[in-house]
Amino acid sequence: MQTQTISKKYISEKVLNKERLTKEEGLFLLENFSLLELGELADFVRQQKHPDNIVTYVVDRNVNYTNVCVAGCKFCAFQRKKTDPDAYVLPIEEILKKVEELVNAGGTTLLMQGGLNPNLRLDFYINMFKAIKEKFPQIQIHSLSATEINYIAKLEKMSIEEVLRILHEAGLDSLPGGGAEILDDEVRVFISSNKTTTQQWLEVHKTAHKLGMMSTATMMFGHVEKPKHIINHLDRVRQLQDYSLKNSKGHFTAFIPWTFQKGGTKLDHLEPATSTWYLKVLATARIYLDNFDNVQTSHVTQTMKVGPVGLHFGANDLGSTMMEENVVTSTGLKVAYPNKEKMERIIREAGFIPAQRDTYYNIVS
Question: What is the pTM of this model?
Fold first, then answer.
């Protein structure tokens, strides 16, 4: 009966009255509203949450400590077998040098992710985090996807909670949202059958929140998923955020969607998502995720021409200065790394007030 009442007018009024949308309404929103209609509603929601007109960015570095991975995801061009000539594990000395460069650039956040490398056990991560914190205690270690955490637990025959507790004590501060892709097993079984299931990904973040850790939620779309899978994904992270805000000290700080880049992958035959579709999904996420304070627009996959446009489609964060990035660039996409001055200029030109933030979205300057 309720489905029959769904219309553009009905949904628009719900959004303007700050009422939560159902899954059916979210799907109707994504499939039936025009780009400009979505942008108008998403911008309204952003203004309610961020009336100060501030747009944030972070100075961080993405260090990929290994490219050896047994997952075999169809969307990945970065992975290598341990027998490949260009397979690597970064020595701790090189990692510390990269962190030092980050600190010297005024950075606050270290994002570290790698592959599912069977040769790296729990001790490797403990020693790595301790070494970083010992030398650079001010750096926030925002590292290891739920997939990596789950894999370490499996190798060590330990629970997710045990692994997270040990790594948190060693210096791991928060978890990035990597490995989420699309949180719907109908899609995951096709694009990444050897990785975490939807439930496992959610369980890792739920456990991290329980331990008082913050994390981010992400979505990589524009491959084989359909609109219903996107809404299922948004609904699952919204449900977990509801639970964590009520029951835990930690929660999701932000939602970060980006589009699949096909170069050098097993999905090369797919047509890339358009910028219009990216902005429609971004706006839908801002409207649907009413319990998320922050939504980030992607200049890495969308370039600095489209990324800042996302600030008018619900986003309040322009992401990172990206001192280093290896996963997306392994597809052949050329990524320009903006410095602080360029980030602030672009944010001002888009009509907003720029502010540098830390991992937890606290403004630092």
Answer: 0.91
